[in-house]
Amino acid sequence: MKSLSVKEFFQPRRLGHVNLWVSDLQKSERFYNEVCGLTVEFTEPGLVATFLGTGHTPHDLGMIEKTDGKPRYGRDGLLQLPPGIGFAAGLNHLAWELENEAALVRAFKALKSNSIEVDMTVDHQVAHSVYMTDPDKNVVEFYCDTVRDWRKVLKGSMDLITSEWDPLSAEGFTDGRYDTSPEIRIVSEAPIHPQRITHAVLETLNVSKLVKFYTSVGGLNVVDELLDGDIVLLGASHNAYQYSLAICKGSSAGYHHASFELNGESALDAAENSINAMGIKIEARINAPWKRSFFLKDPDGMLSEYYVSRPNLRLFEEIKKISSLPHPYLI
What we know:
- By secondary structure, the chain is of the alpha+beta class.
- It has two domains: 6-169, Roll (2,3-Dihydroxybiphenyl 1,2-Dioxygenase, domain 1); 196-330, 2,3-Dihydroxybiphenyl 1,2-Dioxygenase, domain 1 (Roll).
- It is 16% helix and 34% strand.
- It has helices at residues 25-35, 101-113, 207-216, 265-277, 315-319; strands at 14-22, 39-44, 49-53, 61-65, 72-73, 79-81, 90-97, 120-123, 127-133, 139-145, 156-157, 163-164, 196-204, 221-226, 231-235, 245-249, 254-261, 284-288, 291-297, 303-309.
- The strands form three sheets. It has a ten-stranded mixed sheet. It has an eight-stranded mixed sheet with strand order 14-15-16-13-17-20-19-18.
- The protein is globular, with a radius of gyration of 19 Å.
- The two termini are 35 Å apart.
- Residues 1-6 have low confidence and may be disordered.
């Protein structure tokens, strides 16, 4: 294989969404909608899936009920969920938004010319996608939006959405079809009103190996390294996001949490007070110079974070001893 160049492969704008396997779809949907304040944008009963969001993208959080290893098919008989996956609740995939189809096709061709395997390529009606697996076996989606007003296409209960897509025969349009002025939606009766998903956190036994994948193939850039390289923060090209992925040294490999930004400390105060009044357990709190946040566990025990940023992330190194929490919580 020839020497890898970041410019050959993917160049994401931002983390578009996180998709989870869940044990009970209806229970998890209620939690993320009624407690966490994400709007149910559309559902796909044939896939046993729900898609929730804040308005920035077709969904910030997707969830699919676990398959117990049985296959599920998309539109036109596409084997969308092959046998052998979806046995347990956990991360399904992380999804990275690209500028346009031309960038996606160019990256796919570079993968092929370097003999780098992909899992599948699909047409989601509002997006074209390339799926592959990182060195820790986390599934990663790289996609481009294909329609500007996705709400005209995706709403309510949908028939099967996904079919095949051939990047090698694609026209490769060059305009960006993501929403540049999204309508932020909130669930008024929910205690939390997230504004957007900003980043995800992965734990790994081998930080450098995972960073190499996400910087070379994944096209992210290193924003900062903390704790002597035990934490690496990676950013995409969208300058409104400080970073989009945190990779942390851990005792095992896997998904730790996704983080949702709130609209200021008063919004966080209100959310925390409402959560307490409802008797919902807050799993962890962070009050530090770089951020303030709280964490919740969903019905399957997976974490999500709700936070507001504070100015100086570098202070992390100087005051890390203030918390006994494992470091994936701190970023």
